Amino acid sequence: MLRYGVRAMLDPSSPVYVPVAARPALWRFLLGFARHCTPARWTRAMAALRPLNERAVDAFDELAAGGVEAATSAADPFLACFHGPAGQRSLLAELTELSELGQKIDFEALDGAEARSRNPALSEHVTAAVELHDQRFIDPPAFVAALARAVVERGGRLQEGCEVLDVRDEGDAVRVDTAGGSRRYDAVVLATGAWLPALARRFGIRVPVQAGRGYSFSVAADSPLPGPVYLPDQRVACTPLDGRLRIAGMMEFRGPDEPLDPRRVRAIVEAARPFFTSLGLDERRDEWVGSRPCTPDGLPIVGPTRAPRVFAAGGHGMWGVVLGPLTGSLTAEAITTGRVPDELRPLDPLR
Ligand SMILES: Cc1cc2nc3c(=O)[nH]c(=O)nc-3n(C[C@H](O)[C@H](O)[C@H](O)COP(=O)(O)OP(=O)(O)OC[C@H]3O[C@@H](n4cnc5c(N)ncnc54)[C@H](O)[C@@H]3O)c2cc1C
């Protein structure tokens, strides 16, 4: 991983971008990340993530069963595609290792022709693939809108476009200041993504959170894609969305408020182009950059802080969508019962 990281820093077409003149906070994150690049730390992190992964999909079903109109779609087929054998070998080794650690994963190795028979949009450039079974995907904007509607329908109040300037523990309540005024609450969950440290520091959270920025856009496909396609070597994910294909990729370590850099979009386009027969890659819509909140140990930051009424829920890096509903459910349990669920112990915000 470290060798890959250094190579990626020096290669302008790499899916990972680290500015040469990195800020001190970024160096702190990178050094912490390097310290965690050992087999022992990886195994420890995976042991912490396994019980969460096991319940992650059920948490989506729980929302749906509770009347939230937030649908998931079966990813059938879900193909990880490669040019050449090395990438397939390395993904198979990783999946095997995860299985040995107890993570349930059903997968099978395919050659290029088998991959094309499952997804005809793939080109001859694909020479090897891995099919992952029992996976799902969502339409993120529709999903979040459905969650918001459900909160309002149940009597919750949403205040949008409103920056929280300060959060203070006053013992019998927590005070939240915004430009529009100040209010007191019984409990507060800090869930401000890559901006988490700004409000969380005063509550004893020292784990660095670095924006790992990803880019996405949508393109038209000649015929609808039967399922998502992931290109692990290029770090590019392609998901059917609303009759189009949403393409996402890149890990750009810059500040979360920096503007979109069109060079990263072009890098994703050129990385994806050879893998598909006919995609409108030059007629893109919805170009977007967003921040994955990354921690040096690869673990989220979820649970109570130094102030008993203030909780954190963040730092999920690349997995904030899949782990979102379960994080919400476990955080609610911690707030309402005063007892931290076992699954959250390794994610202790004060670690
Ligand atoms: C291109 C891309 C692809 C991804 N693909 C996947 C995927 O396939 N699967 C997956 O599981 N995850 C994926 N992720 C990661 C996932 O999106 C993140 O892990 C997740 O969004 C993190 O959720 P969050 O709520 O912690 O932070 P965010 O989603 O960033 O939300 C934090 C919110 O807090 C707001 N905020 C910050 N500070 C303040 C303040 N002071 N006052 C008020 N509001 C504030 C921000 O504006 C933001 O809206 C992807 C991310 C990217 C960028």
Q: Would you give an account of this structure?
A:
The protein has 351 residues and is of the alpha+beta class. The protein has a domain at 159-208 and 297-347: 3-Layer(bba) Sandwich (FAD/NAD(P)-binding domain), CATH 3.50.50.60. Helices cover 33% and strands 26% of the residues. It has helices spanning 2-10, 24-35, 39-65, 85-100, 112-118, 140-153, 196-200, 262-272, 324-337, and strands spanning 16-17, 73-75, 78-82, 107-111, 128-132, 135-137, 164-169, 174-178, 181-185, 188-190, 210-219, 229-231, 236-241, 244-253, 285-294, 301-304, 310-314. Strands 1, 3, 4, 5, 11, 12, 13, 14 and 15 form a 9-stranded mixed beta sheet that branches. The model has no long low-confidence stretch (mean pLDDT 94). Bound molecules: flavin-adenine dinucleotide (FAD). The site of flavin-adenine dinucleotide has 23 residues, from strand 11 and strand 15.
